[in-house]
Amino acid sequence: MNEKEYILKIYEILDKNSREKIVFLDKSDPFQFLISVILSAQTTDKMVNIVTIDLFDKYPDAKSLSNANYLEVCQIIKPTGFYKVKAKNIINCAKALVDKTVPDNIDELVKLPGVGRKTANCVIGDIYHKGAVIVDTHVKRVLNRLEVVKEKDPTKIEMIVRSLLEDKYLYRFSMTVNLHGRQVCHARKPNCSVCVLKELCPSRDA
């Protein structure tokens, strides 16, 4: 099978064997979701979901967060790590979005403080239901083991996946691959014995 047939086969298997709705962050409001994704860098989604309860209780929207006290924000988000940089980014991001809607395209999103392509893809996929390729450590690992890509650069991986898979499948593909990496294809020791992709995977245990 060719590359497009191969990645579509992977998509079909993971789609069939994954839960219908895959959500890692609790917030569905566009602004709160964007801030949550910024905070999720180098920490767990579970920690972000805990921290944002207090953060959004005090600063629920762009206007309130744009006027927030930097030190107070630092204290609230400290458990997520890198909190000084994150506090600066989310306050500045809020300032850029006062009286505005969260952009629905990558080009505009990445202009916001603290927003890279991964964060932008999360927003357009989760909030706006558009084609998104979210390349985190799990997706990078799984796609390299499957030899869909032989790349470490997230942007290059994103572009390869976009070239191989129809737009309508991209976001669901990203989420199922991510979930597969979290639950089965672990970094240190993948659980090949229960992997639904083992017949396809060139990296599987013999």
What does this structure look like?
By secondary structure, this protein is an all-alpha fold. It folds into two domains: 82 residues, Helix-hairpin-Helix base-excision DNA repair enzymes (C-terminal) (Endonuclease Iii, domain 2, Orthogonal Bundle), CATH 1.10.1670.10; 86 residues, Hypothetical protein, domain 2 (Endonuclease III, domain 1). The chain has eleven helices and no strands. It is elongated and about 55 Å long. The two termini are 22 Å apart.
Q: Would you summarize the structure shown here?
A:
The protein has helices at residues 3-17, 30-39, 45-58, 62-66, 70-77, 83-97, 106-109, 117-126, 137-145, 154-164, 167-183. With 206 residues, the protein is mainly alpha-helical.
How would you summarize the topology of this molecule?
Elements: H1 3-17, H2 30-39, H3 45-58, H4 62-66, H5 70-77, H6 83-97, H7 106-109, H8 117-126, H9 137-145, H10 154-164, H11 167-183
